[in-house]
Amino acid sequence: MKHGFIKVAAVTPDVRVADCGFNKEKIIEAMQECAAAQVKIAVFPELCLTGYTCGDLFLQDILLRKAKEALEDIIEAGKALDMLVLVGLPFLYHGNLYNVAAASFGGRLLGLVPKKNIPSYAEFYEGRHFTEGPAGYELVNWTQKGQEDIPVPFGTDILLECIGMPGLRIGVEICEDIWVPEPPSIRHALAGATVICNLSASDETTGKDSYRRELVKGQSAKLICGYIYAAAGEGESTTDLVFGGQSMITENGSILAEAKRFSNGTVISELDLQKLVNDRRRMTGFQGNAAKDYYIARFSWRPSKKEESLRPLPEISLTRSFERLPFVPGIKADRDKRCEEITNIQAMGLKKRLAHTGCKGAVIGVSGGLDSTLALLVTCKAFDLLGLPRERILAVTMPCFGTTDRTYQNAVDLAGELHVTLREIPIREAVTQHFQDIGQDMSCHDVTYENGQARERTQVLMDLANQTGGLVIGTGDMSELALGWATYNGDHMSMYGVNASVPKTLVRYLVLYFAETAESQELADVLFDVLDTPVSPELLPPEHGEIAQKTEDIVGPYELHDFFLYYVMRYGFEPGKIYRLACLAFAGEYEPETIYRWLVSFYKRFFAQQYKRSCIPDGPKVGSVALSPRGDWRMPSDASVRIWLKELEEISVQS
């Protein structure tokens, strides 16, 4: 609903084979429970009104009649529930029996979608009873408890569309349909379906659960959709088979909720339609007008009166979680694998640049901080790949007014442990002379005082590169670029930026990975101390020998900014939604007022500092979010931030 979230459910009810009355009551009970939980789409298993395992009882007229009567009662019960319901039943049409999914809403049958692929192999013999669902659609007459016949679409090419819920278009397939080489859901997605509902009765055999899980996850990823998979469970006949009720809700390759097998029940989660629609519109493979051949059955959760329909969508409670560090895998094994992959990408990018330019050396400024440490480690890896001696890497430490003994010593020790060439060039006198030349008061610790040091360091590195025939390696990371926390033509500039698309929160874990896999304990000790050092540009004089200028005190916590950056860049979410997600993700760590303050700051800095990103050096993309003006992010340097700040002004800050 609000912010594109919609609560959905996959239900495995208790069933009795061939007892339509019992099954109907259990389905209605589950519908009412789902409605109480704010569910808007409830999906039930294949043939759940009769039971999937009826066998030749499907040829009995009374069973078919009772199934239709049960469906009529379910449709009637749904009048007051404001919920789209999909249930499975056998449906007789023109002398053929079809395995169908019936979609109903608000006391109205929206459509009957037949199963396209009828399995008749191994333990399955559906072809004995059911006919393959016809392509396209046609209108059939449906009588609802003595009312006049109404035309209802019947066929595989039916989509359900919600009026007033942008992006919500629902396609339906049934069990075997997902297991075949060309599932109907592919056509549904190309026709605009963002949610696929699968009514299933897949039996259990050893290891099948893992395959089924990957199948559903993979289909939701391939189609960039939400996938609601409702599986038959206990109550089906065990004459030859057992059904485990492995219901799932997935979203673009991620499992949001999964039922415990061999235990009937309901799984509920929220699909994020805005996220799905945003990803879809970035993909050229989903463009076109494939929906022209479909019947679009429309319904609405909003009141029908025009003035009522203008009311904002309600805000549903969210049960799904949001990672505080979206760039960093939460499981260590996954994180280590990601770190290895990223450092390989960084090193391979630098390797190619060195080989192409013919440079046999590299020049890098080392400060004893996280970014320059990672850049130096990656440079060493690139040199190892090229078979070049590390002595050709010139690590330059340039102490000035803000340098502390701790960071200086870490820079020196790091160069020694990595066996690169270290050169110390103090820049205090050069910067002092420059300030005298331009009339800068040395006691005025303003932006000129800070940036003068940064630009002097860059000048030294560039000139050393000319002297040695080397390449200046950039150390700045993506979070700094997003906030503009870089001195224009200072640390903003290099000849190749290996960290350009690595966010600050990930930089820390990459250095940690190097520490945990270090060549020696001495190197590990240095890296762990770098990790323990506060992030700082060290441009202001120390206080009592300690770092006086802590970056996060000035621009805000990087974990917040990286969270904001991820959802702004990856999904294009509006400020109100990002604030809502951040409050959920960082509950107990930051107060809502703090989150709000830094979110406002993020937008202001992100827009104001685009001009720096418009001319950054080359550097390898490592993840789904990047700020290169040549690839992922093309933004005018003078774009206005007004509408984003306007929405933030309208937000009611939580207390």
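(ticket continues) Second input and output from the same batch:
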Amino acid sequence: MSKASVDARVALVGHPNAGKTSLFNALTGQNQKVGNYTGVTVERRAGEFFTPHGKKLELIDLPGCYALTPNSPDEAVTRDALLGDLSGEELPNLVLCVLDATNLERHLYLMQQVLDLGLPALGVLNKTDLAEQMGLRIDPAQLAEDFGVPFIAISSLSGKGMTELKQSMRFPFPPATGRKWTGSPEFEKAFTHLQTALRQKGVPRVEAHALQLLADEKFEIQGIKAEENFEDEISKTRFEQIHEAVEKSLRRPDESTLLLTDKIDRFALHPVFGWLTFGGIMFGIFWMLFSVAGGPMDLIEELVGATGEKVGSWIPEGDFQSLIVDGIIGGVGSVVVFLPQIVMLFFFISLLESTGYMARAAFLMDKVMSKVGLSGKSFLPLLSGYACAIPGVMATRTIPSAKERLATILILPWTSCSARLPVYIILVPLFITGSLAQTFTLFGIYAVGTLTALLAAKLLMPRLGKADPPQFLLELPPYHKPDLLYILRHVWDRALAFLKKAGTVILGISIILWFLNTFPKSDSDDPAVQQEQSFMGQAGKLIEPVVKPLGWDSRLGTAMLTSFAAREVFVSSLAISYSVDEEEEGLLRETLANAKHPDGSKLFSMATILSLLAFYIYALQCLPTTAVVRRETNSWAWALGQLGGMTLFAYLAAFIAYRIGGLL
């Protein structure tokens, strides 16, 4: 996105739950670009839009933060962007301070910090419809008079006030108000002294940097630090000014009125009913994955089969037909069939986040996390790991403690991501019948991975060095109607990402697997002989002594190896290796159920299935995750140690599961 092609740059600033993302999407639509800020791993989201006056503006969605005294890499990026210290980024021409109208006083503190830095700003009162439902009445004109900048009431979900917001962004923007309050004589003296020192060093915007030095004892620039910390005095002065303004502009309901959010939270946050609610929601999601997704999965399965038959009828029999039908359509189709369940998983996670319930889940989990040395801050990245480990690892940037962040990264792959779902879905029905029993089993699989991750954190935290006890600050937003447009867009993006992987990585691996299963050619027409003499069969013989103690045969061993590129490949590898004769019309699961060892015993016994499940719960079979862990920890030692350690642990867990399964 060329900076020269826009008339001005506008930054979005606000708390994590203020509704910045909804506003960003409402203003920019599909015209968005995602990358990373120069020199850091924090994500940069930008988009373009036009004002009613015909001006083209670039909108930068800065990471959410509670104040400009950062406790995480994300918050440091926001501070540096507003100071003009972020590498490769120009100072914004205007700042949109997104304020949650239901928590006005708390959110105004961040806006006051922005104004004190001398930046042109607009106050965006978001969620005003929710505030009205709560009986809150806000006077934007009074706020504008007290703070010296316009305040616009909007609802980014319903679109209310969006036209007025765009109209208020008149170009050129009005000048900044700057700091309006005066500190103690000692403060003003230190402030003047720091400005002189900064000016001599050639630091730009000396007033803003001097104020930041006095307000944050951890901040320094070009070797300059404040000799005395005035953080308490500055905070007190700001809060007094904010409180006075809010008293004049906000009318609250009768304190005896119990709001809907409070009524729901009586159960959602209850020490007993809260956990029952949380468990019920999670169980319901897993039940939906088995029951509701069954219809669309059957439809896709039939479509894949019909496509294979149709395409096969157009191509003469031979290797090329086998490549297209068995290798490409069969291999990729065996993974694409799980798309409905993956889409549903992302939909429900996004729905819980959008309604405000996810913050309650984090609040409940904080008590559990504290038992193992973590905080509720770690819960949200871990929960993201259920969808995909990569964004989960990246989400740990919001964790203030470096020690807690590292521990969370190291245990995160044990929260089963959506890539494991096809493996679970193909294996669980082989020994469990009935959707309810299958739901309990899937719920148990996810619970085992999560509990192991927490136990690992308990062991890791004392060994990662001394750190302060984890502190958890979380703002509980009021419950509200979900942003369905945002949810659908997010689910659509994840579905496309899954299909893209199926069309690239899995397609390529399926072709390689077909080749390894087909060549060299055998003189025999027996598929078993061909399988044994193929490259894949030969590789399987090499690995079979290693996997035999787990109850696996050579084909399961090679399927496991190929799935290190992508876990979903395990299913397509089985689909190619355990090919079905033309006369057979059974599905892959039926073929696997009938597979046997050379001695005639059943291959997919309960013991073998438990062994496979244990391995896939614990193995880090995702090399892209290892690359991201290396980037986030800046250490190959941690990344490769995690990969090797989890693989060894998975092998031992699979061995134990096989022995226990044999006893059962």
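Agent notes: Residues 580-586 have pLDDT under 50 and may be disordered. The chain is about 60% helix and 5% strand. Closing as not reproducible unless the customer responds.
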